[in-house]
Amino acid sequence: MTRGNQRDIDRERAKKRSEKNEKAKNNDFAKRKLTDADIMREKQKKAEEKKQKEEEDMIKTQMKDKNLDYLKKFEELNVQDDEQQHQDDQEEEKKQPEVKEMIKPQNHQQKKKN
């Protein structure tokens, strides 16, 4: 019977060992589950930050495009205004010599009188 007693003792030891291993496996699974969840949260956070940054960049590029369009329109208006001003200046220059000629003779007449 000593042999039978030994078998019972061995069975109990094996049972205890298997219970320890099961607990360790369960703990490992729970720990892994938590760490996997943490990793996923980090990934989601990074993805959200990346998405937000892309949206901000898109907004910035749209604003730049709008500003460039505004500047182009402004430059076109300035060019048109400059052309108009240039034409006006040329017309005034044409008129000015006539006025200067009219003024010059009067000055000469006054000088001769003095």
From TrEMBL:
The lineage of its organism: Eukaryota, Sar, Alveolata, Ciliophora, Intramacronucleata. Residues 1-114 are annotated as: Disordered. Residues 1-76, 83-103 have a biased composition (Basic and acidic residues). Residues 1-28 form the Small EDRK-rich factor-like N-terminal domain. Signal peptide: none annotated. This is Small EDRK-rich factor-like N-terminal domain-containing protein. It comes from the Eukaryota. It comes from Stylonychia lemnae. Pfam families: SERF-like_N.
